[in-house]
Amino acid sequence: MNPSPIHVEMTVNDRPVAAWMPAHTTLLTALREHFSATDVKYGCGEGVCGTCTVLVDDEPVNACLVFAVQVAARDVRTMAGLSSGDDLHPLQRCFLAHGGAQCGFCTPGMMVTALAHAESGGGSGRDEIREALSGNICRCTGYVKIVDAVEDWMTMSDDVGGAA
Length: 164
Ligand code: FES
Ligand code: FES
Description:
With 164 residues, the protein is α+β, with helices and mostly antiparallel strands. The protein contains five helices and five strands; from the N terminus they run E-E-H-E-E-E-H-H-H-H. The protein has a five-stranded mixed beta sheet, with helices on both faces. A hairpin with a 2-residue loop joins strand 3 and strand 4. Helix 2 (90-98) crosses helix 5 (144-159). The radius of gyration is 16 Å and the shape is elongated. One FE2/S2 (inorganic) cluster (FES) binds at residues 42-45, 47-52, 62, 64. One FE2/S2 (inorganic) cluster is lined by residues 42-45, 47-52, 62, 64.
């Protein structure tokens, strides 16, 4: 007998969402299949690749490793929440300028991880950026272009008085 579905509510990119789902539904599945947040990608499903990273109350979380119900009533941010319509976030523009996204599969997780690093006061040095992104695997770029993009954005943000 299947257990009864449960009702889960949360906020995704400032949008209140709610749905009935099986209790064992991961946050990743809830975001993609119930809340239309398909910018969040499924990589390994085992907490290894960082592809599914989202911010829960501003903390990076592997969405494949937590149940949606554990995130009930909390704020989730994904890469799609960075932009405002066609108006890209400065971090997104830096990824474009530096070719930091090739196939783009790792990019949503990379961007929100970089955002959390900057918002938590992390440094803009290349070693600090590499360390911050060490849990996010990219199969395409060799990482140099990604670090270039994040460094450029963080340096720009320092110049203008904070990570925009
Ligand atoms: Fe979640 Fe790989 S899909 S860490
Ligand atoms: Fe393809 Fe990173 S750009 S996996």
